[in-house]
Structures are given as structure tokens and as C-alpha cells.
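In the previous chapter we treated chains in isolation. Here, by contrast, the input contains two separate entities that must be folded as one system, with a combined length of 480 residues.
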Amino acid sequence: MIWDWQYAWEVFPDIVVDGLRITLLATVLGSALAYALGLLLTLLRRSPIRLVSSTAWAFIELVRSTPLLVQIFFFFFVLPDFGVRFDPLTTGVIALGVHYATYCAEVYRAGIEAVPVGQWEAAVALNLPRLRTWTAVILPQAVPRVLPALGNYTISMLKETPLLLMIGVLDIVGVANQLGSRAFRYVEPITIAGVLFLVLSYSASLLVRGMERRVRYSH
Amino acid sequence: MSDTATDMIRFEHVVKRFGDNVVLDGLDFAVQPGEFVTLIGPSGSGKTTILRLLMTLEQVSEGRIYVGGDCLSHMTRRGREVPADEKYQRRIRKRIGMVFQQFNLFPNMRVRQNITEGPIHSLGLPRAEAEERADKLLDMVGIADKADAHPAQLSGGQQQRVAIARALAMQPDVLLLDEVTSALDPELVTGVLALLKDIATTTEITFLCVTHEMNFARDVSDRVMMFDGGRVLEDAAPEKLFSDPDHERTREFLRAVLERG
């Protein structure tokens, strides 16, 4: 028999409890970091101080032009040489967050540029402080319309969390792989891992599509 | 020329270029406190640019602009003249308000917050006081019942009334009106113009107004300036300028505008 239901039933709880937990944790924390750092990068990119804006630009280009796996290894193996040491999961979250932050930065940029110039001018005419202009006028208009795009990057990130296996973080795939090697039987755990990813990313993409519809109606 | 100390607005040899295009070509004029001055002229004659320079949305290429005696682009530091910094400009800008053709209300805020935003965050008014001021102004512009609406739920005329209330809430010395009825449906224009006339006659605010509504201009203006090619072609009381202009170009322009509308 190719598919052993009893074995599948045995490994399922382990994959969900140990693996799914880590996958979700890495994705949620990684996304939170990517959203926040991405916004910061966009704002730095717009700085009137040339050194600041070009440093942000260079950082974005550098990260976007190198593979995520290289960055994961860099954070895990190279940074400790400079005295910066984190546990594997934290390292993974940082690597995912930094990598996707550079994509989120582009998304925010587009959102900010889509805010009509008249909104900036009205803020000047009302003599609003710069910080208030950002927090009360520009970002509340720019961010909602880019939420679907940010959501899509979270889905991409979800599907890249298995890379963290390379630094010993056991996500859904990591746990499935471990169970498979223990029993010399991979079909069930790896299939379960695949199905879990399918369910997660498909339901997430339905969520994003719903958001897209809402954003379209409100503009 | 008038006494510089009492001028509310003064342009000195103002040149504004966009690339090779000279929009304002050595412009000189002054506006006295409380005056209502209307700028007319063909499109591209630089009228709107004058308002945008005053609001610091554009910077002069050459020359100086003074508001209430203070230069917009330069300040004095340790006895020397240096380019104005943000803090200085924000202080001067408090005195100037602007109403835009496209209203430019903040769509993410309700009507009342649109109006309280400036008083709270620029003037430092307590929220309660700012809200009281907003409600009074909404009553004055005739849409007291819309305080909790979002801008998108209002008609163009109502949105422009909110924008006028929002500018007045800053209690500016100078109010700039940039073609404020051009984006409105024809049946809503009269009401907004009547409101503006009412405000102009009951306040001390100095108005600088760009409009194509010649009847309105004739009705409320103390002075009308006809622009052409980045210069003031004619500067006269409305009775004179509309009935017996000195320049053939003014006559042509008025004829064209009246025929059209």
C-alpha cells in the first residue's frame, strides 16, 4: 500500500503542533518586522538628507539582489563574528523580515505616491507639522490601499519559511522531514506538509482577495 | 507705491520660472489689510502661481514676497539674511489660508476633524475649543448637520463649504481663493459665492481671489488685477476695469469670458 492512513494519523499531530506553530510564528513575526521596517525604509528613502536616502536605497537594492538563503546564512554565521548572536528562530524571523521589508518598502512607496498631491498641499495650507501630516493625512490614505499587496508578500514569506530548516529551525517541512527520516517513510509527512501549506496559503489568498475588493470599493 | 509697513501682501520683482517657462516676470504689487483683490486673466497668465507662492507651495525664482511685513523666503539671523527655515515659514504660514479648486478635504477624516486638525495641531488649541469653533463655522457655512459625515458623502458644494470653514478655523489674516467654484456643478456655484461674499463683508480678512466668475468679481472686489504674460496689465477698481478698461487686451479677455459663460 502506498498511503498508510494509520501512520499519517500518527505523524499529523506532531507536524501541526510543532511544525505549524513555528511556521506561523516565523511568518507572523517576520511579516510584522517586514511591514514596520519596510515603512521605515520608505520614509528614509524620502529623506531630504542625501546620505540617508541613498543609504536606504543601497540597502534596499542590496537585499533585493541577493538570495534569501544567503541572508539567512549571513545573519546566522557571520553576525556572531561581530558579537551579534540570536537563537535560530529569531535569526530566521530577522532574515525573513529584513528580506521582505525591502519589497514592502516598494509597496508603501507606490501607496504614498498614489495619495493626491492636493492632500500634501492642504496639509501645508493648514500648517500641519510634518509628523502630523504623515500620521494623520498621508499614511491613513496610503496604507489601506496597499494592504492587499502587503498580504501577498506575507503569503510568499509563508512559503519560504522552510528555508529556515538550513539553520535548524523546524517548521512544517522540517518536522515532516524529521519524522520521515525516523520511520524511513516520507510520503505521508511530506504530503501532509504540502497540504497544510496549500490550506494556509489558499485561505490567506482568499483573505487578500476580500481585502482587494474592499479597497476597490472605498476608492 | 504704498507704505511697505502697512501692506498685508507685497510682491517685489517676483520672477517665477518653471524650466525655461517664465510664469511671472518681475511682478510688483501690494494688497492692503482687509482688501478683496481679484486676479483675472487668460489661463497660463500666472494667477494661480501667485496664490501658490504665497502659500509656500512654490518657491520664487527671484524677488521677494512679504506677508504682514515678513519675507516668506528669507529671515534674519544674527543680523544677517539667510534662507527661511521650516520653523520660520510655519510661523508666517499661520496667517495664510487657502481654499482649493478641488477642495482637498482629507477623505479619511470626518467633516468636523477636517476643520479641527489645523487649529489643534498648528495653533495648539485645546480639542474642545477647536470643536466648538468647528461647529460654529459649520453652522455659518450652512451645513451644521454634516459634522459627522465623511467628505465623500457630501456634494461638491457642501465639500467646498467644509473647505472654507476649514480655512476660516485657522483665523487667517489672508485667505487665498483658487478658482473655488470651477469644479462645482453650475447650480451650486451661486450658493458658495454668496457665502464668500458674506464672509468678505463681515470679516477683516484680506482676500486674494482667482476666479472666472466676473459678476462675483465685480460684486465683491475692492480691486481687480488683469494679468497677461506674467505681468499686471491693468489694476483698477472693478467698476472701472469691467466697464472701461484701458487696454484692448483686457477688453478682448472680458468679451471672451462673457461670451463663454
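The helical segments of chain A are 5-45, 50-64, 68-78, 88-113, 117-125, 130-160, 172-183, 187-217. Residues 5-45 of chain A form the longest helix (41 residues). Compare these points with the single-chain example from earlier in the chapter.
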